[in-house]
Write a structure and sequence with these properties.
The structure holds three protein chains of three kinds.
Chain A: H1 10-21, H2 29-37, H3 41-65, H4 70-112, H5 119-135, H6 138-162, H7 180-189, H8 199-202, H9 210-244, H10 250-257, H11 271-298, H12 306-318, H13 324-361
Chain B: H1 2-18, E1 30-41, E2 45-53, E3 73-80, H2 83-90, E4 97-99, E5 105-109, H3 110-115, H4 118-121, E6 135-139, H5 143-149, H6 158-167, H7 180-188, E7 195-201, E8 236-245, E9 248-253, H8 255-264, E10 271-276, E11 284-291, E12 296-302, E13 305-321, H9 330-358, H10 376-382, H11 384-387, E14 392-403
Parallel strand pairs in B: 1-4, 1-5, 5-6, 6-7, 13-14
Antiparallel strand pairs in B: 1-2, 2-3, 7-8, 8-9, 10-11, 11-13, 12-13
Helix pairs in contact in B: 8-9
Chain C: H1 4-16, H2 31-42, H3 49-78, H4 81-100, H5 103-111, H6 123-133, E1 142-149, E2 155-162, H7 168-180, H8 193-204, E3 210-213, H9 216-225, E4 228-232, E5 238-241, H10 271-281, E6 287-294, E7 300-307, H11 313-324, H12 334-341, E8 353-355, H13 358-367, E9 370-374, E10 380-383, H14 401-430, H15 438-447, H16 455-475, H17 478-498, H18 504-518, H19 523-560, E11 563-564, E12 567-568
Antiparallel strand pairs in C: 1-2, 2-4, 3-5, 4-5, 6-7, 7-9, 8-10, 9-10, 11-12
The chains are: A mainly alpha, B alpha/beta, C alpha+beta.
């Protein structure tokens, strides 16, 4: 079959997980979080990350009992109907994610980098580049991500560090935000942003063993969550809650504010390269995963012909909402409702099914470690 | 297959090129605006002044080019109801599209500041061409006059001049460089008053108009911008601070008061202080001060009244002792330190009284109260700005004179008796 | 009958009438008639040639028989019966030859191509075949020398060689001299066919390499390579004697890969010289050279060299499979061979390291890679390689670790600069003027005020002229080359700036980008970066930094998807494996303990963990007393 995902090690798995969770750091999510939970936003993200790590641990158990990838596991545990439902949920997740990210990054570009460009042209160009990237295969995407990742993380950290003269740590007090319980509730609701962490479950055959999968996912999630928490912390410190909740593009505003001397100012144009690359990689991987799941589901012989088609469909989907405020609302809505619920239904369902099957078989089977 | 690929890629390339370099502007299609001044006009209009650079005079292509600053700038003033309209109307005479991304400073006239800046600054940060790292200046009199009369003597461009000036405010502590970002933040929060650096045109006549007499043991007088007795040089002067209550101009702080605010904000790398010699009152002693460590500010509630305890450590270096008395010795040094502490405390109490009278908390003590609350709503509903005038503030200044400069002893001038 | 009127008429006509000048009919390389001719020459026309051949062969045999019979008659007449016993051998030979003349064999031989024939025992047969093969008497290169071997009875022989390809001294001294001065009593005719040749080979010919050939393919191959072929009457074998002595260039200094420290030897055109150079550095018995022959008309030898105990056997097998699987007419260039066998021939980036220095080849062979050399090309190609190998120079290990690391980082930075600098300038100039400090932005704007062209046209113009200067500098004869480069660049640049055609900033940027491309050690890699620079310029001019970012991303993804002979191109970063301190940062020489992981060599340890064993021991002299 021409769409085998190839072999990947810990480093590439980690890079994949990292890059699919990272793009939202450049969008309006930090500002939304600042608006809803005020000063508790940074540890709320860590809470959502911890919940996702819990689901990964659950998946480690499932993978040890029944080796295979998401589709075959669901087939074994839930039967064909269950497998179809699970896979279709994941396909919808990946395509929605790709379309939302595409739309938001295009709006981002229109707002900051190329203000007079035609909107459909930008969406078309991004979809084209994403299709080209996805056509090169998952191995190329994973390796390219691993190559570019340290530079991206380093650049983000540089921006955060260069704002040091503007820090005001008192902006983070009181740390409970609007209250401990509402913040925790919000953290649980927002765990859906990290749905993409299940990407390694879908390409599990590419991982050498369950230990690789576990560490790749956990390291990826932890790194990404830590970076996001740091970024929101700095954002709150620099702007204060009131101003922070107003901003459409927190990272861009942060990069804008850097003013150290006559020469080190107005550097936000150089970070356009950073978020364009991260955004395009995130969209490409979401697209590839969606197409991969479709081929697995329908047992098609090849993956590559679907990609230009799905890129076109995603571009059209992305152009549907009429304005940016609606997109941000839809994004928040989709994450809080659809992504979170599917994450919290999918994993326990499969976990329970796996445990029941193990009990039926009579004790633990040999692990595939 | 190859043919199809070729056709598709050619088609895409043509699309890419035909989309028309959207938004690409050549360097000679753009006019760089360096500063914008806004003044008050009745009938809901504003007087907008644009300071535009002429690159031709600054280019270095082969010929030397004259660097007369008069030839390298163009000042245009337009009356319009809003900034956007003014910018569009500017295009009527300017052959290029104005590029506002290089704006260094916003100059706001005093009258407009008194009327309220909500209309101007509130929506300022929405448009992508305005950024938070632009400087903000309030001018006594009109912005148009300031921009027109500003003729930097050493620099070629006023943008270079203003940047150099504001970034070197840390040399003296007499001015607080303000970005629109800080102004905006203060505007939107419930603690801390917005402030902007104060500027004015000096009549260059040498007349001395201090705003207060020096209180002993201080020797220097206090000035607002434009009142310094000076002749020659650039008519523009930037010194002092304008403080706002919400969005309206409430008052102005002199240079000494600004220095006190800088000390309390922890933003005082160095500054000279001239005091009266404690032993010989006709002579002066110059001390170069800097903050020893960040000021310790402790806050508390006593009987529902906010109490603030300030503890500042200043370190000094002796710069000049006119009387020749050995202030380097142990007892004399203690005497000098006490004098300095007394001076600074007097000035600080003056400043705090002034700001409390104006009901503007420039130093932003409110943020020290934030850890005392449990949730964020409580902070918002507390509304520190209303509580500031009734706060009780205790000031404690310690000075340590650590260095004595290049001389560690002064010998008397020979033949003196 | 000539009348006065006709004469006058002719005379007037001569003077008055215009006669077009006589032009010879032009020569046209018409294809139709050629094709039929070519085809027909390959087939046998009329179908009667086969029979004609048979007749020829039979005629020759008949002549031979006639000779023998005449000799027998003479001897019988003279009454010398002893000679008749000597003729026994001759008759035996004839009997042996008769088996060659069976009708089936005759018919087969007659119609088959000369290439496929076997060496016949009849000398005249062989001579006829050789004349047919080598197009004698037109072809003056091939020489057929008649010999008589001084046996009893004397045996006729011919020596066939190509003039110019053989070393005349060797031929005269090592081949002709022993054969012709051979002492007749030395011969020991055992009677069997093979024994004569064996005796000649083992006892007579002091040449160092001798092969026996029975079919004309090998004979041709040998003669074409410079061997001399010896055909002996009555022996159905040819003896190929190694007398190769074609004039070849010696070992010179490297022209493109100069180093400050390191040997100054470079490869030459002769295959054996090159393999000898490599052997001279890797004096190990495990170094294996396999020779393959490529190309139908050129029969070029290609040598594959590897260290048997280290190189991955599957790699060697795959390389051999690919090279042997090429079927083409002409193979004279290692670059085209590379394109025949590489994984991504359409991709700009090189997938084999091309070098002209033997010491570099040896370093890579010792790490487990495989090198192949082509006869006639002074280059060796090393596979498999990763992207970072192209940024290593030959003397990287000669310097200390820190210096070398700094140089490698400089080269990588040079690659970035040459790719991105003009695009970044265009993107910032067009779309993001706020990224520049105000003074610089105004200075650039001021410098460009007088220039009539848009920035894109300026850059493309200057790029084009820079490439012209570079390409032209390659073709100018030696003495003028450097001068034209400097003069051209300086004067063009300065004049263009003064004439306000381009702004000085653009000249600086293009010069920097061009110089940076020269800092990349490998020529093909530099070429790849130079070419990719142009689409990046287009993207930057239309889409600004977004275009630059997407172009860069696609480039990185493309690089990560490439494989060079089974090894991923961006090892060891892309699939994350243990880098062996030799990728970008170069570690000290005594820490290079493992061979590169991606090669999967048989033996992965290069040196033990403590490779400086002298550290463990005490020094011989005194020590510093504390």
């Amino acid at each position: 079959m021409s769409y085998q995902p190839g072999r990947m090690g810990i480093a590439e798995g980690m890079a994949l997980v990292f890059i699919i969770l990272l793009p939202r750091i450049f969008l309006t999510t930090p500002a939304n979080d600042a608006a809803t939970v005020a000063t508790a936003s940074w540890w709320m993200i860590i809470v959502s990350g911890l919940l996702t790590i819990l689901t990964i641990i659950a998946w480690v158990y499932i993978l040890q009992q029944t080796p295979g990838d998401l589709f075959s596991i669901s087939e074994k545990l839930l039967g064909r109907i269950g497998a179809w439902l699970v896979t279709i949920t994941c396909i919808v997740f990946f395509f929605l994610n790709a379309a939302l990210l595409l739309r938001q990054f295009a709006e981002n570009t229109l707002l900051t980098a190329l203000p007079q460009m035609e909107f459909s042209f930008i969406i078309g160009w991004y979809a084209f580049v994403v299709a080209l990237g996805a056509l090169l295969g998952l191995e190329a995407l994973a390796r390219g991500t691993y190559l570019l990742l340290p530079i991206s993380v380093f650049s983000i950290l540089i921006v955060l560090l260069l704002l040091a003269p503007n820090y005001d740590t008192y902006n983070l007090a009181p740390w409970q935000g609007y209250g401990l319980l509402p913040s925790l509730k919000h953290g649980i609701q927002n765990a859906g942003t990290n749905f993409g962490a299940l990407i390694l479950v879908i390409v599990a055959p590419a991982m050498q063993n369950v230990r690789t999968f576990k560490w790749a996912s956990i390291l990826g999630i932890m790194g990404c969550v830590f970076l996001k928490a740091l970024s929101i912390m700095v954002f709150t410190m620099v702007f204060g809650i009131v101003v922070a909740s107003e901003k459409t593009l927190p990272f861009f505003e942060m990069a804008r504010l850097v003013y150290l001397s006559r020469y080190l100012q107005r550097i936000e144009a150089l970070f356009i390269i950073l978020w364009v690359i991260v955004g395009l990689l995130g969209i490409a991987i979401s697209l590839y995963m969606g197409a991969y799941l479709i081929t697995r589901l329908l047992k098609l012989p090849a993956l590559q012909p679907i990609i230009p088609l799905s890129a076109y469909i995603i571009a059209q989907l992305a152009m549907i909402p009429p304005d940016i405020a609606t997109v941000i609302r839809i994004d928040g809505f989709v994450i809080a409702n659809f992504f979170t619920t599917s994450l919290f239904i999918l994993t326990p369902l499969l976990l329970v099914a796996s445990m029941m099957k193990t009990i039926k078989k009579g004790g633990q089977s040999c692990s595939s470690d | 297959m190859f043919f199809r690929l070729t056709i598709i890629s050619l088609g895409l390339t043509v699309c890419l090129i035909l989309s028309g370099c959207s938004g690409a502007k050549e360097t000679d299609e753009v006019a760089y605006v360096l500063a914008v001044g806004v003044d008050y006009l009745p009938n809901k209009q504003i007087n907008i002044t644009f300071l535009i650079a002429v690159p031709r005079a600054l280019g270095t292509s082969g010929s030397g080019g004259d660097t007369d600053s008069g030839k390298s700038l163009v000042v245009t003033t337009i009356k319009a109801p809003s900034l956007a309209e003014g910018r569009s109307l500017l295009g009527a005479s300017l052959g290029r599209s104005p590029d506002l991304s290089h704006i260094k400073v916003w100059v706001v006239g005093e009258e407009l500041a008194r009327q309220g800046l909500e209309n101007l600054v509130g929506p300022l940060l929405r448009f992508r061409e305005f950024r938070g790292s632009m400087f903000m200046m309030v001018v006594r009199d009109t912005a148009q006059g300031f921009i027109n009369k500003n003729k930097p003597s050493i620099d070629v461009l006023p943008s270079r001049w203003i940047e150099g000036l504001l970034l070197s405010g840390t040399e003296t502590g007499y001015l607080l460089p303000t970005h629109v970002h800080e102004f905006y933040n203060r505007l939107k929060t419930t603690s801390g008053a917005p402030y902007a650096v104060l500027a004015a045109i000096n009549p260059l006549s040498g007349t001395d108009r201090p705003s207060a007499k020096p209180t002993l043991p201080e020797r220097a007088k206090e000035y607002l911008a434009g009142d310094i007795p000076r002749e020659g040089g650039n008519p523009a002067a930037v010194i002092g601070t304008a403080v706002f209550k919400r969005d309206k101009l409430a008052g102005m702080l002199t240079n000494e008061e600004t220095r006190m605010v800088a000390i309390l904000m922890g933003n005082f790398p160095k500054g000279f202080l001239t005091i009266v010699d404690p032993k010989i009152p006709e002579r002066n002693v110059h001390i170069l001060l800097r903050l020893g460590k960040n000021p310790q500010i402790n806050v508390d509630f006593v009987n529902n009244r906010p109490v603030i305890d300030i503890d500042v450590l200043l370190e000094g270096e002796l710069a000049s002792i006119a009387s020749g008395i050995n202030y380097e010795s142990e007892d004399n040094r203690k005497l000098l330190e006490e004098e300095v502490s007394k001076t600074i405390k007097l000035e600080m109490v003056e400043m705090l009284n002034h700001t409390q009278a104006l009901e503007t908390d420039v130093v932003n003590f409110g943020r020290y109260f934030r850890p005392k609350f449990k949730t964020y709503d409580e902070v918002v509903s507390f509304n520190w700005n209303d509580h500031y005038p009734e706060a009780e503030i205790h000031v404690q200044i310690n000075t340590k004179i650590r260095r004595t400069g290049l001389m560690f002893k002064s010998m008397p001038i020979g033949g003196n008796d | 009958m000539e009348t006065i009127f006709s004469k006058t008429y002719k005379y007037l006509k001569n003077i008055l009438v215009y006669k077009p000048p006589h032009t010879p009919t032009p020569f046209v390389l018409d294809d139709k008639s050629d094709k039929t001719k070519a085809k027909s020459s390959m087939r046998l026309e009329n179908g009667l040639v086969g029979q004609a051949e048979e007749l020829q062969i039979l005629l020759r045999q008949a002549k031979q028989l006639k000779e023998v019979l005449e000799m027998a008659a003479k001897n019988l007449k003279a009454g010398q019966f002893t000679h008749l016993t000597q003729m026994k051998t001759v008759v035996k030979k004839l009997a042996a030859i008769k088996s060659e003349r069976s009708p089936v064999r005759l018919a087969y031989d007659a119609v088959s191509q000369p290439d496929d024939r076997q060496v016949s025992a009849v000398l005249a047969e062989n001579r006829a075949l050789l004349e047919k093969l080598y197009k004698l008497p037109h072809n003056k290169d091939i020489i057929i020398r008649n010999l008589i071997l001084p046996f009893a009875p004397p045996i006729k022989a011919i020596l066939v060689f190509l003039d110019g390809m053989v070393d005349s001294k060797t031929l005269n001294l090592a081949v002709l001299q022993p054969l012709m001065y051979f002492s007749p009593d030395h011969v020991r005719d055992g009677g069997t066919i093979g024994s004569l040749t064996a005796q000649i080979i083992e006892e007579c010919l002091p040449a160092n390499q001798i092969n026996k050939a029975v079919d004309y393919q090998s004979v041709q191959h040998g003669i074409n390579s410079g061997d001399s072929a010896l055909f002996i009457e009555g022996v159905p074998e040819a003896i190929l004697i190694n007398t190769r002595g074609m004039v070849q260039r010696g070992v010179n200094k490297p022209t493109t890969e100069q180093t400050v420290r390191g040997s100054q030897a470079s490869f030459s055109e002769g295959l054996r010289i090159n393999t000898a150079l490599i052997r001279g550095t890797l004096k190990s018995s495990e170094l294996v050279t396999e020779i393959l022959s490529i190309g139908k008309k050129t029969n070029t030898s290609c040598a594959i060299m590897y260290l048997e105990s280290v190189a991955n056997p599957m790699l060697v097998a795959e390389l051999k499979r690919r090279i042997e699987g090429i079927s083409t007419d002409y193979m004279g260039d290692i670059g085209s061979l590379q394109q025949f066998i590489e994984d991504h021939p359409g991709n700009l980036f090189p997938q084999a390291l091309s070098t002209e220095r033997p010491d570099r080849v040896c370093v890579h062979l010792a790490e487990g890679r495989v090198a192949f050399i082509l006869d006639g090309v002074p280059l060796a190609h090393i596979v498999p390689v990763s992207f970072f190998t192209f940024f290593h120079s030959a003397e990287d290990f000669s310097f200390k670790a820190i210096a070398s690391t700094g140089l490698r980082i400089l080269r990588l930075a040079a690659a970035f600069i040459t790719l991105l600098l003009p695009s970044l300038y265009l993107a910032i100039n067009y779309f993001h003027q706020e990224a520049l400090p105000t003074e610089i932005a105004l200075a650039i704007a001021g410098a460009r005020e007088k220039v009539p062209f848009p920035a894109l046209i300026e850059i493309v113009l200057m790029e084009f002229s820079f490439e012209l200067i570079r390409e032209g500098g390659l073709r100018i004869p030696g003495v003028l080359g450097a001068t034209i480069g400097i003069v051209g660049a300086l004067i063009l640049g300065q004049a263009a700036v003064t004439a306000n055609i381009v702004s000085p900033i653009v000249v600086i940027i293009i010069a920097l980008a061009g110089l940076a491309s020269f800092a990349i050690p490998d020529f093909q890699m530099a070429m790849a970066f130079r070419i990719i620079r142009f689409p990046m310029l287009m993207l930057a001019a239309t889409l600004g930094l977004v275009g630059v970012a997407s172009g860069f991303l696609l480039l990185v993804l493309l690089l990560c998807s490439m494989k060079s002979f089974g090894m991923p191109y961006m090892l060891p970063i892309a699939p994350r494996v243990e880098g062996n301190l030799d990728v970008v940062v170069r570690g000290p020489v005594f820490h290079q303990e493992q061979r590169p992981d991606g090669l999967n060599t048989k033996d992965t340890i290069k040196q033990p963990a403590l490779s400086r064993e002298w550290l463990k021991e005490k020094p011989l002299g005194g020590q510093d007393k504390p």
